[in-house]
Amino acid sequence: MKAEVDAAKCQGHARCWEICPEVFALDEEGFGSVVDPEVPVELEAKAREAADNCPERAIVLA
Ligand code: SF4
């Protein structure tokens, strides 16, 4: 699975990072990004939970 943060939608709530820091990181201003766009199978459920909890629906999983 691949993960991406849509920078145009992200408002910096940091929920992605709180839920799944293995996949999501925050920049100096608190906006989300991905540590590695390729999500390992064992982290897929956590990455999905983070995406479901993003208030801006800024996380794209494919
Ligand atoms: S939870 Fe969503 S809005 Fe918040 S930092 Fe992560 S991607 Fe951005």
From TrEMBL:
The keyword Transport applies. The keyword Transcription does not apply. InterPro entries: 3Fe4S_ferredoxin, 4Fe4S_Fe-S-bd, Fe-S_cluster_ET. Pfam families: Fer4_15 (PF13459). One of its GO terms (molecular function) is 3 iron, 4 sulfur cluster binding. Keywords: 3Fe-4S, Electron transport, Iron, Iron-sulfur, Metal-binding, Transport. Its cofactor is [3Fe-4S] cluster. Gene3D superfamilies: 3.30.70.20. Transmembrane segments: none annotated. Residues 1-29 form the 4Fe-4S ferredoxin-type domain. PANTHER family: FERREDOXIN (PTHR36923:SF3). Ferredoxins are iron-sulfur proteins that transfer electrons in a wide variety of metabolic reactions. This is Ferredoxin. It comes from Pseudofrankia inefficax (strain DSM 45817 / CECT 9037 / DDB 130130 / EuI1c).
